[in-house]
Each structure stands twice: as structure tokens, then as C-alpha cells.
Specification:
single chain; about 130 residues; alpha+beta; Beta Polymerase, domain 2
């Protein structure tokens, strides 16, 4: 996908959806846009934006809120997707660091469960 088309898609999304970052995963017939959406956005607004992008690209489109993913999936998105929009370079860094911190917390909790299992032979979640 060329720069001009990406820029056009970013304008469509950022005009309608309040988000500080937009990641994109491009497949043969599908474009996934992963955003950090405003909590007050309605699904109909997201659907309308998907339709606008579909008209421009002739591909199926999904716009997904990053909060729908678990910690490890968020890290995977950051590693595999292409960042196509960031309000400010600092926001991109803060966002990535926040996702890494969430992942670290999840891994520490998992490690604690495994340690309790080793120590007493039972496993419980807090």
C-alpha cells in the first residue's frame, strides 16, 4: 500500500474516531486497523468508517479497539502490525511501554502461580 493511500485512510479514521495511535495489519483481502478507541464511541460509527475505507480500498475492513486484546495479544499486535498513525512520537513510546508493563505483570502473576504449585502442590488464582 502506498503512502498516499495510507494517509487517506488515516484521515478517514482519525476524523471519525478519537485515537492517539493506529496500527494496521494488511492481508490479501482484509485490512485490520487496531486503535485505542474512545470508550464513548458507538459501534455504528466504527461500522460507518469501515464502510468508507472499504469503498476506497475494495477490501474487507475491521477496526478493532486494542483493549479487546489480552496482554500477550497486544504485544503481538505491536510487533506484527505497522504503525500508520501516532498523534505524537512520545505517545507511541508511552503506549508501547504500557503494553510491555502489562505483559510483565501478567507474566509475574503466572510465575507466582507456578511457584505456589511447586511449593505446595496446589494451584489457586487470586
Amino acid at each position: 500500500m502506498d503512502y498516499e493511500l495510507k494517509n487517506k485512510l488515516v484521515k478517514i479514521i482519525s476524523k471519525n474516531i478519537l485515537t492517539p495511535v493506529i496500527y494496521m495489519i494488511e492481508n490479501d483481502n482484509l485490512l485490520d486497523f487496531i486503535c485505542f478507541c474512545d470508550r464513548n464511541i458507538k459501534m455504528q460509527e466504527i461500522y460507518n468508517v469501515e464502510q468508507q475505507i472499504k469503498e476506497v480500498t475494495s477490501k474487507n475492513v475491521e477496526i478493532i479497539d486494542i483493549r479487546e486484546f489480552g496482554e500477550s495479544e497486544r504485544i503481538e499486535v505491536i510487533n506484527q502490525a505497522t504503525l500508520i498513525y501516532s498523534e505524537h512520537p512520545l505517545i507511541e513510546k508511552i503506549f508501547a511501554q504500557s503494553m510491555m508493563e502489562d505483559f510483565k505483570i501478567a507474566m509475574d502473576e503466572r510465575k507466582d502461580v507456578q511457584q505456589r504449585y511447586k511449593e505446595c502442590g496446589t494451584c489457586y488464582l487470586q
